[in-house]
Design goal:
By secondary structure, the protein is an alpha/beta fold. It is built from 11 helices and 23 strands.
C-alpha cells in the first residue's frame, strides 16, 4: 500500500506543471544589414524579414569547425557555391566550447577568427549562418565534441562500450556524471554562457548570422525525464537568452528539444523576443519506429513538435534531420518528412553537407557529390513569402513548384528559391501576367503579381511537363 502511494505521488510530481518563464533583453540596436542578408525577426511565430515576409531557411549542417575527435571535413568556397546554386539559404554551423575556452576563463581569439572567416565565406554566397554550440557525448575528452577537458568530472570510469556516437557509448558513467554536473550546478553554466557572450560580442552587428543555437541536443539522461525539462533545461534557456541577449539583442535564439530517445519531452512557456524552436527529428531513421514506407510516426512527431513551438510560443525550424541514403526506404522517408515540414511552414537543416557516408552530400575529400540525394533535398520553395501567398510541395527531381496568390496579397515581392545546379534555369508561367526576374547568382526568382485578383504561378524545369 505504501509503495503504491509513493509511486502515485512520484508520478504526480513528475507531471506537476511549473510557472511560465520570462527572459528580458535590451531593445534592438541593429546597424545596416549586410547586402542581400537583411536582419531577421520573429513575429506571430514566424521568422520574418523587414518587409514582413515569412522567411524560410533551408540548408545544411556543416561540422568543419569542430574538434578533430569527430573528424570534420573542410569547408571551402566550392561548398558555399554549391549550396547556394542548389537553392539553399542557410548553414547551421556547429562550433566548439572546448576550442573557444580551452582553459577556464581564457578564450581563444584565434578560434573565434576561424568562426568569423567561415561566416564571412558563407555570407559572401548569400547564405545565412546559425551558430550552434555543439555537443556530442559531452566532450572531446570522451571522443566526442563539446565541453573542454576542464569541464569534465575526473576519476569517473569511462568504459568504451561502443563507438561515438552510439547508444552504448552514451551510457558511459563519465559522460553522464559530467553531463549531470553541468545541469545541477551553476559554475560550468556560468562559463558556458560567458563563452556565448564572447561569441555574441563578435557577431552582434552581423545580419548574416541568423542567430544562436544555444545548446545542441540537450537530454535528460541521466536525470529524470519531464522534470529535467521543467526544472533544468527551460530555466537554463531563460537564463541563456538573458545572458547572451544582454550583449547581443539583435539575433534570433534557437532552442533545441530534449533529445533523450524514446522519452517524452515537454516545453515550458517562455516569453522572450525572437525565439525559434529548433527540434531535431531522427524518428524512422536513427530512432524507432524505423521507416518502412509508412510515414505516420514521423508525421505525428512533426505535428507534436509544431504544437510545442506554439505553446512556447516560438517560430519553428528543424535544426537537424537525416537518414542513411544507402538504406532502401531513404527516398520515401526524405520525401515524407520534407512534405511534413512544408505542411508546418517550417525550414530545416540536413545533417550534414560534407561527409563520406550515406548522410553527406559532398564527400569529405571533396571529390564527389551524391546527386540523387541532393535532388531530393533541393526542392524549389518560397524563400520569402508575403501574406496572401502559398505554395505546394516543390519537386526537386522533376522540377516544379506551384504558387497560389490570393486577391488580397501583400504587394511585397515573392522570392522563390530554385536549384539551378540540379534543375537549370526555371521556366515561369502564370494566368495573371505575373512578372519575374531571375538571379542566377542567388539562384532565386523575384516575382510580382497584380493586385486584386487570384493568380497561379507555375515554375518548372525546362523540358518538364507543365
Amino acid at each position: 500500500m505504501l509503495i503504491g502511494s509513493l509511486v502515485v505521488m512520484f508520478g504526480v510530481w513528475l507531471m506537476l506543471p511549473v510557472p511560465a518563464l520570462t527572459a528580458s533583453i535590451p531593445p534592438l540596436s541593429r546597424p545596416a544589414p549586410l547586402a542581400g542578408l537583411p536582419w531577421l525577426s520573429v513575429e506571430n511565430q514566424r521568422i520574418v524579414d523587414p518587409q514582413g515576409r515569412i522567411v524560410v531557411l533551408r540548408g545544411f549542417n556543416d561540422d568543419a569547425l569542430l574538434e578533430s575527435t569527430v573528424q570534420p571535413a573542410p569547408l571551402d568556397d566550392t561548398d558555399a557555391r554549391l549550396m547556394r546554386d542548389s537553392g539553399f539559404d542557410v548553414v547551421r554551423l556547429p562550433i566548439a566550447w572546448s576550442l573557444l575556452e580551452p582553459q577556464q576563463g581564457s578564450f581563444s581569439s584565434a578560434y573565434l577568427d576561424r568562426i568569423a572567416a567561415a561566416v564571412a565565406l558563407l555570407n559572401s554566397h548569400g547564405l545565412y549562418v546559425v551558430l550552434d554550440m555543439h555537443s556530442l557525448g559531452w566532450s572531446p575528452a570522451y571522443g566526442g565534441s563539446g565541453a573542454p577537458v576542464w569541464a569534465t568530472v575526473p576519476g569517473i570510469p569511462d568504459p568504451v562500450w561502443g563507438p561515438m556516437p552510439s547508444g552504448l557509448r552514451f551510457l558511459s558513467p563519465a559522460i553522464n556524471v559530467s553531463t549531470a554536473y553541468f545541469w545541477l550546478t551553476s559554475g560550468w553554466q556560468d562559463q558556458y554562457l560567458a563563452t556565448w557572450q564572447f561569441v555574441a560580442k563578435r557577431f552582434r552587428d552581423t545580419s548574416g548570422v541568423a542567430g544562436y543555437d544555444l545548446i545542441n541536443e540537450p537530454h535528460a539522461l541521466p536525470l529524470l525525464p519531464l522534470r529535467f525539462d521543467k526544472d533544468d533545461l527551460w530555466p537554463f534557456y531563460q537564463r541563456a537568452v538573458e545572458s547572451v541577449g544582454a550583449v547581443d539583442p539583435n539575433h534570433l535564439f534557437f532552442l533545441d528539444n530534449d533529445m533523450a530517445p524514446i522519452v517524452p519531452n515537454v516545453v515550458v512557456p517562455l516569453q522572450a523576443p525572437n525565439l525559434v524552436y529548433a527540434p531535431h527529428v531522427y524518428t524512422g531513421s536513427l530512432l524507432p519506429p524505423y521507416f518502412s514506407g509508412d510515414g505516420t510516426a514521423v508525421r505525428g512527431e512533426v505535428q507534436e513538435l509544431s504544437g510545442q513551438a506554439a505553446s512556447i510560443p516560438a517560430a519553428l525550424w528543424f535544426g537537424e534531420f537525416s537518414i542513411d541514403m544507402h538504406s532502401s526506404d531513404a527516398a520515401g522517408w526524405v520525401t515524407d518528412i520534407l512534405n511534413d515540414f512544408d505542411d508546418e511552414d517550417a525550414g530545416w537543416a540536413w545533417w550534414q553537407w560534407r561527409e563520406t557516408s550515406g548522410y553527406g552530400i559532398r564527400s569529405a575529400d571533396g571529390m564527389s557529390i551524391d546527386m540523387s540525394s541532393l535532388e531530393l533535398l533541393a526542392r524549389p520553395y518560397l524563400a520569402a513569402v508575403p501574406s496572401g501567398v502559398v505554395a505546394g510541395h516543390g519537386d526537386g527531381v522533376r522540377g516544379s513548384l506551384l504558387i497560389s496568390v490570393f486577391a488580397d496579397h501583400s504587394s511585397a515581392p515573392i522570392v522563390a528559391a530554385w536549384p539551378e545546379f540540379t534543375l537549370g534555369t526555371p521556366v515561369v508561367s502564370s494566368d495573371c501576367g505575373a512578372q519575374s526576374t531571375w538571379d542566377a547568382v542567388a539562384a532565386q526568382l523575384t516575382i510580382t503579381a497584380p493586385q486584386g485578383r487570384y493568380c497561379t504561378i507555375q515554375l518548372r524545369a525546362d523540358g518538364a511537363q507543365s
